[in-house]
Design goal:
Length: 250
């Protein structure tokens, strides 16, 4: 297993910029298995319709069919993802930066499909999580190569030091839909690499108009001293979707 401890330079970069990119720590064999798990997740998540609470669906269709943008949560459907959430390669950076062991706070998989993968507007994750601790760090694992061409993550260096940035009137969480290209920096990475970022780090992504998809698993962690809130935060979402799916099958 690769060394999973951040070195002093990486820690300093994170503290200054609010994120750090870690070179690939998963083998191709492991990635193949996780890509298969991503396909399994699609199959087990139920019909691709707006009523399916677990799914976000792209506004554009492909060959006239709806396409999944994001699935959340994921760990209760596919055991491989539950195992991944506890893998030291996923938890170590967050635990090191927070200074203690961590609990999983949120789990999701972004699909960023080829040709129609939509843009994400500039936002800070903590704007969605203000009922909970703000000691939250997200670790994103690239299942595929992430490039500027297929809409890799873009982050605003140093924005994590500003607290919650003021949003325009009428926008509860989105900072802006039209991002100055010079404001954020690309965070590309080969399949198997990680992007670690603070819940206060402003980020977005452009559309994917390339023929290559860009799937990423995102796990957010909180310090163990802040408690295990996953059952009360993510649990009801998963249960509501399971109940809805069961009702469709009656």
């Amino acid at each position: 297993m690769p060394d999973i401890e951040l070195n002093a330079k990486q820690v300093a970069f994170y503290e200054e910029n609010g994120f750090v990119v870690i070179e690939p720590v998963f083998s191709e064999a492991e990635l193949i298995a996780l890509r298969e798990a991503a396909d399994q997740l699609l199959a087990q998540s139920g019909p691709v319709v707006a009523e399916n609470r677990r799914l976000q669906i792209e506004e554009e269709t492909h060959d006239g069919k709806p396409v999944v943008r994001k699935i959340e949560p994921i760990n209760d459907l596919v055991p491989a993802f539950a195992e991944l959430a506890a893998d030291p390669r996923m938890t170590a950076a967050a635990a090191q930066l927070l200074g203690e062991p961590v609990f999983l706070f949120e789990d999701k998989l972004n699909y960023k499909p080829p040709y129609i993968g939509s843009a994400y507007p500039l936002h800070q994750d903590y704007a969605y999580w203000t009922k909970y601790t703000d000691r939250l760090i997200t670790v994103a694992l690239h299942l595929d190569d992430a490039t500027p061409e297929n809409g890799c993550l873009r982050l605003v260096p140093g924005s994590h030091q500003q607290g919650l940035i003021e949003r325009p009137a009428g926008e509860a969480r989105i900072i802006t839909w039209d991002v100055d290209p010079d404001l954020a920096v690309d965070a590309p990475g080969a399949a198997g690499s990680l992007v670690v970022f603070s819940c206060y780090t402003a980020h977005h992504s452009y559309m994917n108009r390339s023929p290559v998809g860009r799937r990423a698993i995102l796990y957010t962690y909180n310090p163990a001293s802040d408690g295990d809130t996953y059952p009360t935060y993510m649990g009801p979402i998963a249960q509501a979707q399971r109940d809805w799916l069961a009702a469709q099958q009656l």
